[in-house]
Amino acid sequence: MKVSSVFKFKNPEVRALHLTWIAFFITFYVWFNMAPLASSMLKSVDWLTTDDLKLFAICNVALTIPARILVGMALDRFGPRRVFSILMVVMSIPALVFAFGNTMTQLLVSRLILSSIGASFVVGIHMTALWFKPKDIGFAEGFYAGWGNFGSAAAAMSLPTIALTMYGGDDGWRWAIAQSAVVMAAYGVYYWFAITDGPDQKAHRKPRKSAALEVSTWGDMIKLILWTIPLVGVLAILVWRIEVMGYLSATGAIIAYLVIVAIVIYQIIQILRVNVPILKKGVPEDDKYSFNSVAALNTTYFANFGAELAVVSMLPMFFEQTWGLTAAAAGLIAASFAFVNLVARPMGGMVSDRMGNRRFVMLCYMFGIGIGFVLMGMLNASWPLIVAIAITIFTSIFVQGAEGATFGIIPSIKRRLTGQISGMAGAYGNVGAVVYLTIFTFVTPTQFFYIIATGAFLSWLVCLIWLKEPEGAFDDEYYVSSVDRQIEEQNAALHPSK
């Protein structure tokens, strides 16, 4: 797929791509609509404190991880059109509650529920995979993710102006947030009618079970269980942070920990219920896939997207304190991470398409991330500012290119499981952010950059050992196994009119 192809709006797949990245853009705009208006909220609401806003920031990511897993399951069962539309409409409700909330409980609970909107990313990944051929999927997924992800930066740049100029007054921030929620709900309705799940009904291949990811061997089932535990277990870190901040009692924390343990046990039971019967029956050779590749891509997204979210949170202060810049100047430099995303992520996917070896491209990007963060760890006030900016942009290109390369591989691993695999990898990106941001509270910026570099190098090593080149990764059509055909025949028998 050529870059110029994205302007061919008459092509159905290109139209679907634009409809979907815009949906992703809007959801991320709403997800990150609080931080740009934080100062306005403090001025407007007398009882609100900076510690309250820190708590809201934690809540804003708290449910994103489990939501990405659940949404991944829903995708494989119901299809991305329904899931994306319903997600946008339903999540507009807590966004409106937050906009006009007048109590701590209203703001806290609504922000907590709204954190689920972060799962929107994996929905569009699945939709894009349904529309594009394996040979073009890297660039298409990268373009979708790069431009959609810019919604967070657009919110930071536009919401203060909207609140001040369009509405004004003490409640300007409320109306600005409400406006974004209404736009999201309206687009959710439009998206339902404007798009289909792929060019034809055969594009969306459903798994046998959606309660847990299907695997091919008993060993892979054990690995799936081990890789599932951190996805829910990481919530314990968030509970601990809230307890340390004084917003949760020791008893409340214990209850929260017990709930997390119960969820982990439930997830393990679901994995066993789905996979034990399948494995006892035997998996046909043509339907097997290696879970090692899924695990490897979990580590890449942990190390690249997790690093991006963490670094974006601390980069402005790093430049401000190291080179004595103003907050505005430091923020502008840090914003280069977001702007580079518009080009770097599609480029990562395109390189993955053009090189003819997606595994090799993934390895190059992860090694580049490690080098980039090692260089950032060496930065101090004696370095020229322009060199520091250049190194930051260099690192950003590799970080976001690696994100594009990750999702250039995922759709080709196992077509009918794309939603669940995307959900798992996407969730590991958020796990990475939580882990890295927690580590940052204990170390210096220099140490932090070296730790992130170590994470990238470890991911590179895992990919070197475990990641396999997907079968048919550059074909015109996705590989269809005997089980895929069997499921298709069963669905046709159940729904003969379709």
TrEMBL record:
Domain of life: Bacteria
Domain Major facilitator superfamily (MFS) profile: residue ranges: 16-471
InterPro entries: MFS, MFS_dom, MFS_trans_sf, NO3_transporter
GO molecular function: nitrate transmembrane transporter activity
Keywords in alphabetical order: Membrane, Nitrate assimilation, Transmembrane, Transmembrane helix
Gene3D superfamilies: MFS general substrate transporter like domains (1.20.1250.20)
One GO CC annotation: membrane
SUPFAM superfamilies, A to Z: MFS general substrate transporter
Primary location class: membrane
Segments traversing the membrane: 21-41, 53-71, 83-100, 112-132, 144-167, 173-194, 215-240, 246-269, 289-311, 323-344, 360-379, 385-409, 421-442, 448-467
Alphabetized Pfam families for the sequence: MFS_1
Membrane-related topology note: Multi-pass membrane protein
Gene Ontology biological process terms from the UniProt entry: nitrate assimilation
Cellular localisation: Membrane
Sequence similarity: Belongs to the major facilitator superfamily. Nitrate/nitrite porter (TC 2.A.1.8) family.
Name of protein: Putative nitrate transporter narT
UniProt organism field: Nitrincola nitratireducens
Source taxonomy: Bacteria, Pseudomonadati, Pseudomonadota, Gammaproteobacteria, Oceanospirillales
Encoding gene (name): narT
